[in-house]
């Protein structure tokens, strides 16, 4: 397991003249438990600390750095660099900045991706508010320079909600409202906030990114969102595979159950997401900017994660109606979406399209390859798919011509509809295979709906267990956060 980050820590009990500075080595995805209990990885002697005080996680961030996340288990809360943080409410994030990374808040150029972030040795000191540069204050939020990610429309930064003096950490999605944006684009930009507000009504859902507030000035729209500190599902799948493992069937089922529960919540409100994906050959724009936003995030690091569906920028209300406006990532579009994309008079419907994308995602989780976007990969090695995706993101040599021909072959495979189920991966999971093929039904009228999928044999066979873990890992923490 490769080293991800080093934390320099001063023991509070040895503060003063002979203060000892020690180094905690954090490895990817292996939490370090800190507390008085002798079984902790880092044992404290101070009686002010709890038996199990907190744990630290390191995960690779999308921009090639590393996020250190601190989870408070203590009874009385944590004190960090002199600041008291509320018990059970605190998540500390430090995004390590590569020297090449730009740090201005609205810098449109995304950071250069570091190919193997896990191998990069970095020195991290514990983050304090004074270590962050505050770039802007908006209403009762402070936006920092720590970039969490970016997409074609938005830049997302770490921010703090200073109401009640809690300094709760949130994500701030900033979208530039340029005068050059056409009326319909402006509507689309603002629609994301409107849809998220609507989804929050009645309590929201643990698998849907929660909106806290929006603020708009002449130049920018700021959307303040629940912070996800676990990275994204694509990174989770690929880092698991890089360690020569795949997500096991049970974990894939738990993640799929959440995805379907989140989608059911959306579809019951007639909202379609229309851009669900975990990796994929990015649209040309993303190749140019060398950045690929991911829309399924992990609420916190660690195995059997709680997933959060994010980026409602392309979501559509009343999605039972057909639309000409096809959107999303080509490799996650269903055949009727591809047909509508290329033929002016054809329309498609958003909800069956989400179900198709969910089928693609389940396929990837089970075998580590994309069912259609598999051109330069051999199915023998699913890791190839990840490298292929990364290479296409990095490649600046991709010409428009090359891109167009790759995309047109990809569309051909989706329209053709034949899917290869490698026996090595699929023989042992016949019920998962059945669910994938019902979601990847080329005929959208016969395609499994979210309800059908939730009633599939694969899910029903372990429904009680899934519900129990869903309550413990998703619902209870979600309700706790609301309090
Ligand atoms: N709530 C959040 N917590 C942590 N990181 C986030 C959050 N929301 C977004 N991000 C990060 O920012 C990236 C870009 O966000 P998002 O996908 O919403 O931008 P976008 O410009 O709307 O994307 P697209 O190009 O798909 O339209 C995400 O991939 C993720 O890495």
Automatic annotation (TrEMBL):
Keywords tagged on the record: ATP-binding, Kinase, Nucleotide-binding, Transferase
Regions that span the bilayer: none
Pfam families: FHA (PF00498), Pkinase (PF00069)
Keyword set includes Metal-binding: no
InterPro entries in alphabetical order: FHA_dom, Kinase-like_dom_sf, Prot_kinase_dom, Protein_kinase_ATP_BS, SMAD_FHA_dom_sf
Span of domain Protein kinase: 142-459
GO MF term list: ATP binding; protein kinase activity
Binding site for ATP: 173
Residue runs in coiled coils: none
Family assignment from sequence similarity: Belongs to the protein kinase superfamily. CAMK Ser/Thr protein kinase family. CHEK2 subfamily.
Protein name, as recorded: Kinase-like protein
């Amino acid at each position: 397991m490769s080293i991800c980050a080093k934390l320099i820590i001063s023991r509070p009990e040895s503060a003063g003249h002979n203060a000892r500075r020690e180094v905690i080595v954090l490895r990817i995805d292996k939490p370090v438990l800190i507390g008085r209990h002798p079984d902790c990885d880092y044992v404290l002697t101070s009686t002010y600390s709890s038996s199990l005080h907190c744990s630290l996680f390191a995960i690779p961030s999308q921009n090639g750095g590393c996020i250190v996340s601190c989870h408070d288990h203590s009874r009385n809360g944590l004190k960090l660099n002199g600041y008291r943080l509320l018990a059970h409410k605190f998540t500390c994030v430090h995004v390590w900045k590569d020297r090449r990374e730009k740090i201005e808040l609205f810098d449109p150029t995304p950071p250069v991706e570091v190919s193997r972030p896990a191998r990069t040795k970095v020195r991290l000191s514990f983050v304090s508010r004074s270590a962050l540069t505050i770039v802007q204050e908006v209403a009762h939020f402070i936006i920092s320079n720590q970039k969490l990610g970016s997409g074609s429309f938005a830049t997302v930064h770490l921010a703090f909600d200073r109401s009640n003096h809690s300094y709760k950490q949130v994500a701030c999605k900033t979208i530039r409202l340029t005068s050059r944006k056409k009326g319909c684009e402006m509507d689309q930009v603002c629609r994301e906030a409107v849809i998220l507000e609507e989804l929050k009504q009645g309590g929201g859902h643990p698998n849907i990114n929660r909106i806290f507030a929006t603020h708009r000035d002449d130049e920018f729209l700021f959307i303040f969102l629940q912070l996800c500190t676990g990275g994204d599902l694509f990174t989770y799948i690929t880092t698991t595979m890089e360690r020569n493992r795949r997500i096991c069937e049970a974990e894939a089922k738990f993640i799929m159950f959440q995805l379907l529960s989140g989608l059911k919540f959306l579809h019951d409100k007639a909202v379609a997401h229309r851009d669900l994906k975990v990796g994929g050959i990015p649209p040309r724009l993303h190749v140019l900017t060398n950045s690929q936003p991911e829309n399924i995030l992990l609420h916190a690091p660690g195995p059997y994660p709680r997933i959060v569906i994010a980026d409602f920028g392309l979501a559509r209300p009343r999605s039972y109606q057909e639309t000409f406006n096809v959107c999303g990532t080509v490799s996650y579009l269903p055949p009727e979406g591809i047909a509508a994309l290329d033929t002016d008079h054809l329309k498609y419907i958003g909800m069956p399209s989400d179900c198709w994308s969910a089928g693609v995602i389940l396929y990837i989780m089970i075998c580590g390859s994309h069912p259609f976007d598999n051109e330069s990969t051999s199915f023998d090695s699913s890791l190839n798919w990840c490298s292929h995706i990364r290479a296409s993101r990095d490649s600046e040599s991709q010409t428009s011509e090359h891109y167009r021909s790759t995309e047109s072959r990809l569309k051909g495979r989706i329209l053709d509809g034949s899917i290869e189920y490698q026996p090595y991966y699929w023989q042992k999971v016949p019920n998962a295979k059945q669910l994938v093929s019902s979601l990847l039904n080329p005929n959208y009228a016969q395609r499994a709906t979210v309800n059908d999928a939730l009633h599939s044999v694969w899910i029903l066979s372990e429904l009680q267990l899934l519900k129990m873990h869903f309550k413990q890992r998703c619902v209870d923490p979600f309700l706790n956060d609301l309090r």
